[in-house]
Write a structure and sequence with these properties.
single chain; alpha+beta; SH3 type barrels; 3 domains; five-stranded antiparallel beta sheet; 59% helix; Mechanosensitive ion channel family protein
Length: 428
């Protein structure tokens, strides 16, 4: 307060000499003008000189943290916070304690400092989030949800300090009365609290991370996770729509995460072709000789023919009846052909499960299922490989005298009626 006394002792005699009636008012005006001039000077130095110099250094650097801090306006908000502190100090230096403006200015400046301190914290957290997202090891953590929780807690705390500054009471008094409002706060902030707990569980159990392929039928989500927030998880579906899911729903409900498939290096093919049961039969000698010319079936047929011949000879089986002995079927040979084809396919993963199996027959025919994995997880490439395999299967079926089961269409009915009409005329 010595500075105030020096300024007052120097100015007041001079003011009393020239404007005795308005000496105190003039002194207050001069003090306010001094505060404004110094504040504008500091603002000019900080924003026009220092921050521009920092911005110039930032644009020329490759360091992520420098660019992140400046892009999130951290330095600008810290400068405004510092300006508020300087104004608060000046008000205490130049204004007298009995001036009515001093408490009002200090209260307003207190709110200014608290507000920009909160905004500076927001900028710091956003900059840290940008920095951590550049590190692959940190992408699995729900940092956005954690930082949002910190922002929420800081906002409540700063709000209490602002209210205490306005009413002129200690924030301890407000905090002591906060216990009675716990039930109300739990109800109001139910979703953020549940989201925070869910985010911690998702991270601790490594259940979900940004970039994972999430499928959750209940919410219509089928796509890539682009954001894990405090209360919501955003999923960009493959049709480029955005689905928002409550974070706690990922703990209470079930969902499918395709990350394991992506990391394994192989994607499963599990598709059946339905065969007409009436087309299944034993192979004749001519069929065997014709199919032995196939590069993929030659070794298999030679081995099976020798095995079956030894078995039937050992049992002295009468082969004149089809029900006696062992024989090759066109369906079994077809399954063997598919197995060899898949084992030699350049885009099928040979270290993962690979089989061709026959499922239970039904009114829709006999299902023959391909169960294998491609050696790529790219969706477009995977669909192309799968389609090429089944294109070949449908095209090669006539070589085994097999037919695909297909429900009769209207075209089939019209063709049947067309062929039956001449016969009906002859009968009449």
């Amino acid at each position: 307060m010595d500075e105030v006394k020096d300024l007052e002792g120097w100015l007041l005699p001079w003011l009393n000499q020239y404007v005795p009636q308005f000496a105190k008012l003039a002194y207050t005006g001069i003090a306010l003008a001094l505060i404004v001039i110094i504040s504008l000077g500091i603002h000019f130095v900080l924003h026009r000189v220092v921050l521009r110099w920092v911005e110039g250094r930032t644009r020329g650097t490759q360091r992520i943290w420098r660019r992140a801090f400046f892009e999130r306006k951290l330095f600008g908000r810290l400068a405004l916070t510092l300006q508020g502190i300087i104004i608060y100090i000046q008000a205490g230096l130049w204004l007298k304690g009995d001036t009515i403006l001093l408490p009002a200015i200090q209260t307003a400046v207190n709110m200014w400092i608290l507000l920009y301190a909160l905004l500076s914290l927001y900028s710091l957290l956003d900059a840290l989030l940008d920095i951590f997202r550049q590190r692959p090891a940190m992408r699995t953590f729900p940092l956005r949800g954690i930082f949002q929780s910190i922002k929420l807690i800081a906002s409540i705390f700063i709000g209490l300090l602002i209210i205490s500054a306005l009413i002129g009471k200690s924030p301890v008094i407000l905090l002591s009365g906060l216990g009675a409002m716990t039930a109300v706060l739990m109800l109001v902030f139910k979703d953020p609290i549940m989201g925070l707990v869910a985010g911690i569980q998702l991270s601790a159990n490594d259940m979900l991370a940004v970039g994972d392929w999430l499928e959750m039928g209940r919410y219509g989500a089928d796509g890539e996770v682009i954001d894990i927030g405090l209360t919501t998880v955003k999923v960009q579906n493959w049709d480029h729509t955005i689905t928002t899911i409550p974070t706690y729903a990922l703990i209470s409900d079930s969902f499918k995460n395709w990350r394991g498939m992506s990391e394994s290096g192989g994607r499963r093919i599990k598709r059946s072709v339905l065969l007409d049961a009436s087309s299944v039969r034993f192979l004749t000698e001519d069929d065997i000789q014709r199919l032995q010319k196939s590069r993929l079936l030659g070794d298999y047929l030679n081995e099976k023919v020798q095995e079956i011949t030894r078995y039937n000879s050992g049992k002295q089986t009468d082969m004149s009846l089809l029900v006696n002995g062992r024989r090759l079927t066109n369906l079994g040979t077809f399954r063997a052909y598919l197995g060899v084809m898949l084992r030699e396919h350049p885009h099928i993963h040979q270290q993962m499960t690979l089989m061709v199996r026959q499922l239970e027959a039904s009114s829709n025919g006999i299902p023959v299922e391909i169960y294998a994995f491609t050696n790529t997880t790219s969706w477009v490439v995977y669909e192309g490989i799968q389609s090429d395999i089944f294109d070949h299967i449908f095209a090669v079926l006539p070589e085994f005298d097999l037919r695909v089961h297909q429900t009769p269409t209207g075209y089939d009915m019209r063709m049947l009626a067309h062929h039956e009409q001449p016969k009906l005329k002859k009968v009449m």
